[in-house]
Write a structure and sequence with these properties.
Layout lengths: L8 H15 L3 H14 L4 H13 L3 H13 L5 H18 L2 H8 L12 H13 L3 H14 L4 H13 L3 H14 L4 H8 L11 H8 L6 H17 L3 H17 L5 H14 L2 H4 L12 E6 L5 H9 L4 E3 L5 H11 L10 H5 L5 H18 L4 E4 L8 H7 L4 E6 L2 H9 L13 H22 L3 E5 H6 L1 H12 L7 H7 L32 H9 L6
Parallel strand pairs: 1-3, 1-4, 2-3, 4-5
Length: 541
């Protein structure tokens, strides 16, 4: 509890009541309790911060930050007291999706130099910088934290992850080894370590992973991480049957922990296509230039978006926002003000023609353009694959934006997704039938968008990229209005930009073709996927 002055027992009780309401999700009651608390004790810093959290829960971000500003004012000359409030402030910006706003707060003089910061503050600062895609600065912060606690497994893990994001793969592996030596139950560290490089017969962790899997009462989360790790290492060693056996076990265990119904996603996608045809989506009076700063890369995950992202960033004109959910949030926020009165089950679809799509686009551009400006770039990439769901709204809200649809062989795509352990996204990915069914629905929706916005969509094929990157890169640069220079061919994999995606290790080397048709190694085992795709009329050979 952060205090300006020692509160009375009565104030402590009032604070506890407000906090219990908040933790129970009763935000209105929590708000009333917090307001009463602050009216009686306006100089209670912890009360201000709790009220800010309540307001964030209610979606009132500016009001939340106003409370934090008042909390900061209670510590005009106390740098140590101000630090957690700055971090709290940055968190509200991140919750709102405003990464530029968060980065502005994280540059406060109160949070520098890092040598003066407590280890706990450094850890939280590094985490927030990572969420803002500021990987180089995050690495600097995590290294500083580790220097203060060199034998703390959590600090070792954080520093390893930051080094992985920045391409320092040998350093990352050494740090993961140290973390696991101190805490053999850091299950995620096993998977991250296996992903760092191609394992060899002389240097791998197969025996260690198998030994861990033999432990009694292994929790599900551990079984999933270890099976995915072992699947990756067996694949590297060329033992595809053993790899698939581990992969299937990991997927089955993971699937049991997820509440997912494919039919819901299929219904949403078919509903989008049915409701929004050329007549609705081609209209609007949005300025033709709106969104000209933005380049979208969308499609399915694991199709090469990080490669494409780095290729475009190598121009020197473009920065990457990573995979933000900004457009979807802006769309939902606008829909919530209009769709509820129509009573449908999907608020965005239900809002329909009532959506002020121009306002959605303008709000989106404000956030993304601010990030580009901070990076000194004139353009910015949004490579959230799931933006394909909103492509129609994107095309109408942002007439000036470039939209790249990245495609890959359907079976290679599905296999690559199936063998990737995602933190929380893509719940359809752990069952072959569900994954192929989702893919088929995605292809149907993309055919719809193509029929409506054919001239807006730039089609790029992964196989073409890895076959002749220079030729495809030049065509892509021209389509995006970027100036090509030969140094791009080295810069795309040597540039110092960080990435926290599943491809963090692969993108640090020149383009390769070894992933093309990799699914052929498991032709028989992947039969359920093939059957669904064949039924949908999708060609994958």
């Amino acid at each position: 509890m952060q205090l300006k002055a020692d509160p009375s027992s009565e104030v402590k009780r009032a604070y506890t009541i407000a906090r219990k309401y908040f933790q129970a999700g009763n935000l209105r009651a929590a708000q009333q309790a917090a307001e009463a608390l602050l009216q009686a004790t306006p100089q209670f810093a912890s009360g201000r911060r709790l009220y800010a959290d309540i307001l964030v829960g209610l979606g009132q971000f500016p009001a939340a930050r106003a409370q934090l500003e008042k909390a900061l004012a209670l510590f005009p000359h106390d740098t140590v007291g101000r630090r957690p409030i700055h971090l709290h402030m940055a968190t509200t910006f991140i919750r709102e999706g405003d990464m530029a706003g968060a980065l502005g707060v994280l540059q406060s003089p109160d949070l520098a130099p890092e040598g003066d910061l407590e280890a706990g503050v450094l850890t939280q600062l590094g985490y927030l910088l990572t969420l803002c895609e500021s990987h180089q600065k995050a690495l600097q912060i995590f290294e500083a934290a580790l220097s203060k606690r060199p034998d703390d497994p959590l600090f070792l893990f954080n520093c390893a992850a930051a080094n992985r994001a920045m391409g320092n793969l040998e350093r990352a592996e050494a740090l993961y080894d140290r973390a696991l030596a101190l805490n053999p139950e850091d299950w995620e560290a096993y998977k991250n370590r296996s992903d760092l490089r191609k394992q060899t017969a002389d240097s791998n962790h197969v025996s260690e992973l198998r030994q861990q899997l033999q432990r009694k009462d292994l929790p599900a989360v551990a079984s999933v991480q270890l099976h995915f790790s072992l699947a990756k290492e067996y694949e590297d060693l060329g033992d595809y049957p053993a790899s698939f056996d581990c992969l299937q076990r990991g997927c089955q265990t993971r699937r049991k922990t997820i509440d997912y119904q494919l039919g819901r996603d299929q219904s949403v996608m078919s509903g989008i296509a049915d409701r929004f045809g050329p007549g609705f989506l081609a209209g609007g009076d949005v300025a033709e230039s709106q969104g000209q700063e933005v380049i979208f890369i969308l499609g399915m995950p694991r199709t090469g978006s990080t490669l494409l992202d780095r290729l475009l960033c190598a121009s020197g004109e473009v920065d990457s926002a990573g995979e933000p959910d900004t457009f979807a949030r802006m769309l939902l926020r606008q829909a919530n003000t209009t769709g509820e009165r129509n009573g449908g089950s999907n608020v965005i679809l239900d809002a329909g023609e009532d959506l002020n799509i121009g306002e959605v686009g303008a709000a989106y551009v404000r956030q993304l353009a601010a990030r580009a400006q901070l990076a000194g770039a004139s353009r910015i990439i949004d490579k959230n694959p799931m933006n394909f769901l909103y492509l129609g709204w994107i095309a109408r809200a942002l007439p000036g934006a470039k939209i790249i649809h990245l495609r890959r062989n359907p079976m290679d795509t599905c296999y690559a997704i199936y063998k990737t352990l995602f933190k929380s996204a893509y719940p359809f990915s752990y069952d072959q039938v569900e994954l192929a069914g989702y893919y088929a629905a995605y292809r149907t929706l993309m055919r719809h968008w193509k029929s409506v916005f054919n001239d807006r969509i730039i089609e790029v094929h992964y196989e073409d990229l890895v076959t002749d990157l220079s030729a495809e890169g030049k065509k892509l640069y021209e389509a995006c209005g970027l100036a090509w220079h030969d140094s791009v061919m080295d810069a795309y994999y040597t540039q110092g930009k960080g990435t926290a995606t599943a491809s963090a290790a692969q993108v640090r080397q020149p383009v390769y073709r070894s992933s093309v048709n990799k699914w052929h190694h498991l032709h028989e085992q992947l039969a359920p996927m093939q059957e669904i795709l064949t039924q949908a009329g999708i060609v994958y050979e």
